[in-house]
Amino acid sequence: MNSQIHKLAKKILNSDSMVVFTGAGMSTESGIPDFRGPSGLWKRYQPVQLQDFLSSRDARAEYWRRKIESFPDFRNARPNKGHIALAELYELDYLKFIITQNIDGLHQEAGIPDERVIELHGTGRYVSCLDCGKRFEWEDILPWFNQDGTLDPGKDTPACDYCQGLLKPATISFGQAMPEKETAEAYIRAAESDLFIAVGSSLQVYPAASIPQEAAKSGSFFVIINNESTPLDPMADMVINGQAGEILGETVASIKQDQ
Ligand code: NAD
Ligand code: ZN
């Protein structure tokens, strides 16, 4: 692994337009579970589809109950070594953009400005109205629910005080369209990059997984950092298997030595 890290450090030192693409594996070391990894959430739950959220009060209530159940871990999560390493690469002016599937806001919390983080799946840091987009803060929404996230029978999930639309955390759910502006920008940044590193993503979710493919096709040097193999490994110029935080931390340490 050491020689791979050294090689990656060299690639970063020689890059002009590095882009990093992150998935749920980026944040497991911050205590936020992934979906598809060995102890992922999907071993416990099937996701609630947007169509069911819209049409069924019980599906909505179950969706919110799960969100509220995991909310304390989500709120208490702090950037890990990997987030901090990427923020350092931004400070050193190597990293230009992050494209993330994560909804936890930890790249921004580590110090990367909002306009450099392209959030493909929205954010769980606040709640928004599905109809008019009005933003609501979690602390104003939580009191609507019981302590354990349930609702009393007959009570519906919260609605917008402006247009009566349904409220939902501002994430993109299964069955919901990807945000157009962010998706378009992600493809452009991927195509323009000369070094593209996918970190902690199973690279199985489409269309998100087609963004690294776009980078590779456009001639970018394509690196995968993940703790298990992915379907895109054969397309990559380099695959490093291990813990994301450790690998990124060591890579940045090596860069600082060589600079
Ligand atoms: P995924 O769950 O499909 O895959 C995560 C991958 O990372 C797996 O292959 C896993 O083995 C690997 N991994 C886990 N911990 C790792 C570590 N410390 N180092 C290296 N690799 C590690 O995630 P995905 O492909 O990003 O897709 C799932 C979707 O779920 C995403 O689109 C995202 O929107 C959402 N999600 C987000 C969060 C978050 O915001 N932190 C958490 C769970 C799910
Ligand atoms: Zn509204």
CATH H level, superfamily name of the largest domain: TPP-binding domain
Main pleated-sheet profile = 6 strands, parallel
Principal-axis shape equals elongated
Count of DSSP strands: 9
Strand order of the largest sheet: 3-2-1-7-8-9
Topology pattern, helix = H, strand = E:
HEHHHEHEEEHEHEHEEH
Query: What is the CA-CA span between the terminal residues?
Result: 21 Å
Q: Which blocks of ≥5 consecutive residues have pLDDT under 50?
A: none
The number of domains is 2
Give the cofactors and ligands: nicotinamide-adenine-dinucleotide, zinc ion
β-strand amount: 15-25%
Question: What's the CATH architecture of the largest domain?
Answer: 3-Layer(aba) Sandwich
By helix and strand content, what is the structural category? alpha/beta
Oligomeric state, counting identical vs distinct chains? single chain
What is the alpha-carbon Rg in Å?
19 Å
Instruction: Specify the CATH class of the largest domain.
Output: Alpha Beta
DSSP helix fraction: 25-40%
Key attributes of the depicted protein:
SIR2/SIRT2 'Small Domain'; six-stranded parallel sheet; 9 helices; binds nicotinamide-adenine-dinucleotide; binds zinc ion
